[in-house]
C-alpha cells in the first residue's frame, strides 16, 4: 500500500488499484515508488508516499473510537514489544493497535466480539500489510481463556474491553515469565477493577497512567497550549508477570 497526496488530501491505494476523485482518475502503477509523481487524466499531480503507522490511524475504516497514537506509544514503550514477541489482544475494534504491533514484527492474535467489526479489522490488516502477522478472531476472549492458556504463553497481553478484569485474573497463566500486561480503559471505575485483579493475580510493577496531551498554539499574539480538543483519552494500566 502507498499514500497518494495532493495538498491536504490523502488516499491509500495498492499498486494496480484505481483512484477516482473530482481531481481525476489514475491507476497506480505496479512499479510505483515513494517520491514518484502520478498524474490523473485531468492533469492533477499526486505525490507518492510510503505508508506509515500514523497513516493507518487516518485511513483505516473505523468501527468505533480507535486507540490514539499517544496511547499506542505508551503501550509500546512500557512493554517493549519487539519482533520476536507473541501478543494476545482483545477489543480489536478498528485494529489500530494490532496493526502497529504487527508492523513492529510481533505475532498478534486479537479478539473482537462483533463479527462485522472483526471482518472490517481483517480488511484493515490487509491495508496495513500485516495480515501475515495479525490474526483477527471473532469471539469473546473470556470464553476462550482455557484454550488460550494452552496456546500460550504470550509475551504481551493488551486489553481494551469492559471485561478486562476477568481476563487479567488469568494473566499469570497467559503470560510468559517477565511478560507484560497493558490495559486501556476510558473509565476510572474499570481501571480500579483491573488493578485489583492484577494484584490478586500476583502480578508485579503495577502502575496506572492517565493519558493527557495538549497541542501547542503559536500565533502573532504569543504561544500557549491550545484551548481546542480533548487532552484526556483514558487510563493505561501496566503490570508484569513474575
UniProtKB/TrEMBL annotation:
Domain of life (superkingdom): Archaea
One Pfam family hit: GCD14
Membrane spanning stretches: none
UniProt keyword list: Methyltransferase, S-adenosyl-L-methionine, Transferase, tRNA processing
Ranges where the tRNA (adenine(58)-N(1))-methyltransferase catalytic subunit TRM61 C-terminal domain occurs: 69-217
GO terms assigned for molecular function: tRNA (adenine(58)-N1)-methyltransferase activity
InterPro entries found in the cross-reference section: SAM-dependent_MTases_sf, TRM61_C, tRNA_MeTrfase_Gcd14
One GO term describing the cellular component: tRNA (m1A) methyltransferase complex
GO annotation (BP), single: tRNA methylation
PANTHER family tied to this protein: TRNA (ADENINE(58)-N(1))-METHYLTRANSFERASE, TRNA (ADENINE(58)-N(1))-METHYLTRANSFERASE, MITOCHONDRIAL
Identification of the protein by name: tRNA (Adenine-N1)-methyltransferase
